[in-house]
Amino acid sequence: MAARTPVLDKTDLFGTLPPELLEQLRGRTALARYRRGDTIFEKDDPATHLYVVFSGRIAIVARASDDRESVLTVLGPGALFGEMSMFDGGIRSANARALTTAHLIAVEFDDVRDVLVRRPEVLWAVVRILARRLRATDEALADAMFLDVTGRTAKRLLELSDGESDFRMPLTQEELAGMVGASRERVNKAIALFVKLEWLEISGRSRYRILNREELEIRTTV
């Protein structure tokens, strides 16, 4: 259980807590395990907990009425999600699904609210979270308006690599296409171009190696 403290410490919301409050909150957490494909919650579900990713990767997914999906973001260790309903009392606004075997730290909203009442200055962390999400939304809108499919694909690959040259693709082809906001065929065409240009190497079904990060980064700006 002690290993959960450094993970909580990395989040904007809990990282500003004094050690005694962090320890108190840690004692009220639960660790849950999910397998790849498991649903953590679905849109319109009632909400009582927020989550911190202890290990693995989680996708936050929007689903259209015709069952098409768009991966809004992919979250790794230390990421916080599911907290929005704690502040507005609303239901879940998207789906959350495990992309790999994942362990999540679950914290009840009421326990977090108790901490916020005692340390209201921590609410500045909430402001930072909301500001970061607004920036991400603005950036996504700008990408959709000004970047073509090739540029958006390059950007998503760089994000999924998490700064590493070698990485395992956590998404299926359909999920990656949904994250890019294009058809699977067009995304595969963009990836094939990167391979042809020797910017990217793919082995097996999911092992990716970035050979020329600089060129991929340039492609995200044109």
List the helices and strands and how they pair.
Blueprint lengths: L3 H6 L9 H8 L3 E5 L4 E3 L7 E7 L2 E6 L5 E7 L4 E2 L2 H5 L6 E4 L3 E7 H10 L4 H24 L2 H13 L4 E3 L4 H8 L3 H13 L3 E4 L3 E4 L2 H7 L3
Antiparallel strand pairs: 1-8, 2-7, 3-6, 3-8, 4-5, 4-7, 9-11, 10-11
Helix pairs in contact: 6-7, 6-8, 6-9, 7-8
Describe the structure.
This protein has 222 residues and is of the alpha+beta class. It starts with a helix and ends with a helix. The model has no long low-confidence stretch (mean pLDDT 89). The protein folds into two domains: 4-138, Sandwich (Jelly Rolls); 147-219, Arc Repressor Mutant, subunit A (Orthogonal Bundle). The strands form three sheets. A four-stranded antiparallel β-sheet has the order 1-8-3-6. α6 (149-161) crosses α7 (173-180), α6 (149-161) crosses α9 and α7 (173-180) crosses α8. It has helices spanning 4-9, 19-26, 84-88, 109-118, 123-146, 149-161, 173-180, 184-196, 213-219, and strands at 30-34, 39-41, 49-55, 58-63, 69-75, 80-81, 95-98, 102-108, 166-168, 200-203, 207-210. The protein is elongated and about 55 Å long. It is built from nine helices and eleven strands.
